[in-house]
Amino acid sequence: MLVTGGNRNTGLDIVERFAREGARTFFCGASAGSTAKGAEALAARGVAAEGLVCDISDAAQVAAMFDEIERRAGRLDVLVNNAANQGLHGCGPLDVTADMMREVFAVNVFGGFQVTREACNRFFLKQETRGVVVFLSSNTARRAIRNRTAYCASKGAINSLVRSLALDLGPLGVRVNCCAPGYIHTERWDVLDPALAARRRKNCPLGREASGADIAGVVAFLASDDSSNMTGEIVTCDAGCSCQHMPPDCDC
Ligand SMILES: NC(=O)c1ccc[n+]([C@@H]2O[C@H](COP(=O)([O-])OP(=O)(O)OC[C@H]3O[C@@H](n4cnc5c(N)ncnc54)[C@H](OP(=O)(O)O)[C@@H]3O)[C@@H](O)[C@H]2O)c1
Fold first, then answer.
1. What is the pLDDT of residues 59-105, one digit of tens each?
2. How far apart are CA 246 and CA 102, in angstroms?
3. From CA 79, how far away is CA 62, in angstroms rounded?
4. Phi–psi pair at 23, nearest 5 degrees
5. What spacing in Å lies between the alpha carbon of 107 and ligand 1's midpoint?
6. C-alpha 219 to ligand 1 mean position (Å)
7. Which of 26, 124, 151, 183 is catalytic?
8. Interatomic CA distance for residues 157 and 142, integer angstroms
């Protein structure tokens, strides 16, 4: 299996989950340095996984990554499109430039698409046991957050991409689903103002953000035969944030 952006944070936990279940697991980071750091972090957890360097927005690098998987393993059964450009531009939509928008879409939408296309053409459609694709979207695809125009738009595009791919690839035996997380505890939470962390948790009906392992559990379900009759689904995992009309301190 392959996890894009599996070198840190949520992706690393997804890699760990699959590797511990016995899957031969590949992951990529965008640079040699970040991929090597991911390999170190996984080794420190006692997890065996193989790191490949690939900027998924670059078609030649994606082709080279699949050449390497073909050479080393000769097959692929699960693709997790986790890599993301967070689009932390720190400005409102009217200051978002065309280049900012393009960079975010190049990774989140085009990148995920071309990795999926390559996985299908190289492996899934040639194998008797077809492969499974799981995308990582976000609850912000449906409920926007402020000053993240490019990111929210790209996550909405991923939801549509998942449905479109599911429709066309279903008859070919390939399932395509999506996990849409809310808050996830990443290294960014470790430097978060405690008052802000408490405020975010108050916004969660379950009172806590997801761990990477929580998200990995949903991804593992969507990649497993337990979800064999599901395709084109967007499964929200956000501690109930999306089901509330207003956060507690605005309720009346
Ligand atoms: N964190 C949250 O609260 C949250 C909430 C909702 C949804 N999500 C979604 O869940 C997923 C994981 O989130 P996260 O916060 O764990 O992610 P993250 O910490 O921002 O890490 C992003 C990952 O994507 C990789 N990446 C970025 N650009 C790439 C490129 N061009 N080619 C290859 N890899 C690239 C990064 O690799 P490098 O280290 O090499 O840059 C890194 O491994 C993402 O899809 C995100 O949008 C997260």
1. 999 999 999 999 999 999 999 999 999 999 999 999 999 999 999 99
2. 33
3. 13
4. -75, 145
5. 10
6. 15
7. 151
8. 11
Domain 2-237 homologous superfamily, CATH: NAD(P)-binding Rossmann-like Domain (3.40.50.720)
Measured CA to CA, the distance from residue 136 to residue 248 in angstroms comes to: 27
| Lining residues, ligand 1, CB within 6 Å | 4-5, 7-11, 28-31, 34, 54-57, 82-86, 107, 111, 136, 138, 181, 183-184, 186
Q: Which residues contact 106 (CB under 8 A, 6 or more apart)?
A: 57, 85
Catalytic site residue 151?
A: yes
| 209 neighbors 192 (Cβ within 8 angstroms) | no
Q: Indicate if the alpha-carbon torsion angle 118, 78, 170, 109 is positive or negative.
A: negative
DSSP string, 137-165: --GGGTS--TT-HHHHHHHHHHHHHHHHH
Tally Cβ neighbours within 10 Å of residue 197: 15
CB 108 within 8 Å of CB 157: yes
For 5-45, how does the pLDDT look when each residue is reduced to its tens digit (9 = 90+)?
999 999 999 999 999 999 999 999 999 999 999 999 999 99
So where are the chain's domains? 2-237
